[in-house]
Design goal:
This protein has 144 residues and is mainly alpha-helical. It has one domain. The chain is built from four helices and no strands. Keywords: Membrane, Transmembrane, Transmembrane helix.
């Protein structure tokens, strides 16, 4: 396995594990914990997702660099990389601001209509997870 393939494989599966653990386990479960109110859960979520997104940016850039520098058979690896990175960019630029606006309102005591931004974020998260699985599998297959 080349250095580029090893880097892409490791970072892809670390990224995938973090997204699954935080988005699909921690995020929904924190609201079920005793004593966690909606404002506390939102405050924790904002901190956790800010940290996750910062780490994701680092991993995305490192994967992009390794994919650009590596030699890959076919288009699957660059394409899967592009889908995963594009999903992250959509979340950060298009969806996170709407989620922040909504959580700011809830934390300020306003309980208006629910935002669909959360469902959009989850949908894009599912696309990102699928792209990361595709990317990791494609790199492993190409290394054999």
């Amino acid at each position: 396995m080349s250095t580029a393939a090893a880097v892409v494989t490791a970072l892809t599966f670390v990224w995938l594990g973090m997204v699954v653990a935080i988005s699909f386990l921690e995020a929904p479960l924190k609201f079920r914990a005793p004593g966690v109110t909606r404002p506390i859960g939102l405050g924790i979520g904002r901190l956790v997702f800010r940290a996750l997104n910062a780490a994701e940016l680092v991993w995305a850039v490192a994967i992009l660099v390794a994919v650009i520098l590596g030699s890959w058979p076919g288009a699957a690896i660059p394409t899967a990389t592009g889908v995963a990175v594009a999903a992250l960019v959509v979340q950060l630029i298009a969806v996170r601001p709407a989620l922040t606006k909504r959580s700011d309102a809830v934390l300020a005591g306003h309980d208006g209509p629910r935002s669909s931004a959360h469902l959009v974020y989850v949908g894009v998260e599912v696309i990102k997870v699928a792209a990361l699985i595709w990317l990791g599998a494609a790199v492993l297959v190409s290394a054999t």
